Amino acid sequence: MKALYIHKNTRLALLCSLILCLTQACVIQRIDHMPYQQTDYYRHTLQTLKNVPPVKSTAEALRVGWAKVNITPPVGTPLAGYGKRKGLRYTEVHDSVWVRTFVFENGQAEVAVVTLDMLIAPMTVAAALEKEYQALGLRPEQVYLTATHTHTSFGGWGQKLAGWLMAGKRDKKLVQETTARIVQSIVAARQQSQPARLGYGIAYAPHLVRNRLTGSASGRDTTVRFLKIEQKSGKTAVLTTFAAHPTILPSMARALSRDYPGELVDQLEQQVDLAAFAAGAVGSQGVVAPYGDTYESTAAVGQQLAQAVLQRLPEVKTHDTVTIGFGRVDLRLPAPQWRINTTHRFAPFLFHALFGRYPAFVSSLQLGSTILVGVPADYSSELLPPLEKQAAQQGQQVVVTGFNGGYIGYVTPDEHYKLKKYETRSMNFYGPQTGSYLTEVILQVIQQYQK
Prior knowledge:
26% strand, 451 residues
């Protein structure tokens, strides 16, 4: 009997071990290193690019309007930006948050650029907007969404566990109200439309940005890029981008704030009629805060960036004959590869259970000689050189902005994949070749806007 008893326990142990092994096999998988050029998702995206080229038109009748609408929710709304907050709600408003919108049209084509004082253009808001465009006479590809990427703006739009931790649980009413105010800003910008001229300028702020991934001085984007818009009435507006993370303020501070982009636009608006900011290729870039995690630092960084822009603004030449183009390509992706360690990942179903499933796309916009490319990611500035080279060969400039209504994590150079860093380990969602893949797609998009 004793031998039989031991035998039964051995079988039970073997059965438990087998179940554990099968469970691990389902949940844990090896990282896939198949070259992306050999995959179906790559071929499908390239075919989509060929089948759906951007719409372009040139005319001597440029008109531009702009508007801003307050989108500040009530005190008690969750903050968005850090998972460790776990839906922490703010108790005061240090500065209000806004949607700023530009509408460009030349009699043949019309586009809207929408910038939000938010962490990202949330997927839930983007989906709600898709239902509103037809009533505005617009298609989704005509609306270019982006955000300042401040980590101290409001949440209340997250879905699934990861979204709840990062931005608080979705508040359906808040999503609807934010959507309605974005629509209001588009309508108001149209109403303010006037004959206008457009120009592109750059400034530099190397002392305000660092490469937080590698510490490399050369792996930084120190350029402040901006569009200057002059209406016939004499009014002027500026759309500015910079590629340093707006993460100056303490992660657990319970105040709503626009971080340094808020100070930047406030300073600019002392000289121009409207200023807006969009986060650039922030994926590996941190901001240099001269006074630590304080409002003194947000003020100093914003003021110095504004000064850099204002010094260059008078010399920027503007034009009234402007090509307007727009496009959007669905970005097919590999199965998620959310990593456990250097060799293994969690199974895709577990990633989707925690993060959800959302559309991903690359949006693009041509305004004169400037090509704006919107990506659903924290895209690294280290990936910009080939994009800028391609645009320069075409006699154009490229400006990359993030957070366009989707989100696929951090996108960094493939050679950094092995680094045990937050950007490359916790926030790399789609594997070791995401940087090369997305960069090639953007290159193809830029080429479609050749003169």
